[in-house]
Design brief:
Strand content: 15-25%
Oligomer: single chain
Largest sheet: 8 strands, mixed
Shape: globular
């Protein structure tokens, strides 16, 4: 019998790619949506409303695995106090709602797999390579990811294991952070941001989805895993590579940090800071990245 995987955030960029990969690998997929959708072969849609604290309980009851991807876009707009609260709540509250159904029906999952972010290591640029046991930072990105992961841990009594996928910057076609950057570079205005020395821990969408698939299949996987390439790409190197692929040499001067802070406010740290991140733990689980070369990864997305 096919195993059933319930995905929150299944209609998003990562969710759509992951859904297809799971179907291709013999899973049935359920997706929680804010509006009623017509079911498809191997995909069942269920309605939920986080604000109203409503969820179609059948979605949870039928699931063997739950993958939690839902969360408000952290780079969607300036970080006002209200936006910060919404960013955290959109990641934490769904877990509480799911957990209430699990406990109500005494349901035991094979695994609960939650997205998280390498932002848990903070908006910092330094030489350190962050591993999963690196201390979390207490800035907004760090606090958001800590709350996210702590919420996942509350599922412990209702699942055999919990996996947290600490994701970097996702490269993919028609989505991810590349979608926002590409038009600027195609206009010939590509340039480093701030010092350009900040690291950009990236991962291709195919590899990210592959890590989620491995987390489903491999019962030994438990706890946090970094999901990024360990190649120490800086913002300047990334910008240079992208301009070369688009077809010109980078000539536009770096965008000064103070301008980005004026435009983006506190959220500017997302583009002005970045840490190096280790991928050794997931590789020790037998995972092999398909995309390890930045140029090849970007070209596959165009």
């Amino acid at each position: 019998m096919k195993k059933q995987v319930l995905i929150t955030g299944g209609t998003g960029f990562v969710g759509r790619h992951l859904t297809q990969l799971l179907i291709d690998n013999g899973y049935n997929v359920s997706v929680l949506s804010r509006s009623k959708k017509e079911n498809k072969p191997s995909i069942s849609y269920y309605v939920w409303d986080i604000k109203e604290q409503f969820i179609d309980e059948e979605a949870v009851i039928k699931a063997d695995y739950i993958i939690h991807l839902a969360g408000e876009n952290i780079a969607g707009s300036r970080w006002t106090a209200e936006r910060k609260k919404n960013i955290i709540d959109s990641r934490v509250t769904p877990i509480s709602l799911i957990n209430s159904v699990l406990k109500k029906h005494n349901k035991k999952l094979d695994a609960f797999i939650s997205a998280s972010g390498v932002g848990i290591y903070g908006a910092i640029t330094d030489a350190k390579i962050c591993k999963e046991n690196t201390a979390a930072e207490d800035d907004f990105l760090g606090i958001t990811c800590q709350n996210w992961e702590a919420a996942a841990d509350t599922i412990a009594s209702s699942t055999n294991r919990i996996v947290k996928v600490r994701t970097g910057l996702v490269l993919g076609k028609n989505g991810g952070f590349l979608k926002k950057m590409l038009p600027i570079f195609k206009w010939g205005l590509g340039s480093p941001l701030g010092s350009g020395k900040q690291y950009m821990p990236w991962i291709h969408i195919d590899d990210l989805c592959g890590i989620y698939l491995l987390a489903l299949k491999k019962e030994e996987m438990n706890g946090a895993y970094n999901a990024t390439i360990q190649d120490s790409t800086t913002n300047k190197e990334f910008s240079k590579t992208l301009t070369m692929i688009v077809g010109y040499k980078m000539w536009f001067p770096a965008v000064p940090a103070f301008i980005l802070r004026l435009v983006l406010g506190e959220m500017a740290v997302i583009v002005l800071e970045g840490r190096r991140v280790s991928s050794s733990k997931i590789e020790k689980q037998g995972f092999r990245f398909k995309y390890i070369n930045l140029e090849t990864a970007i070209r596959s997305c165009l």
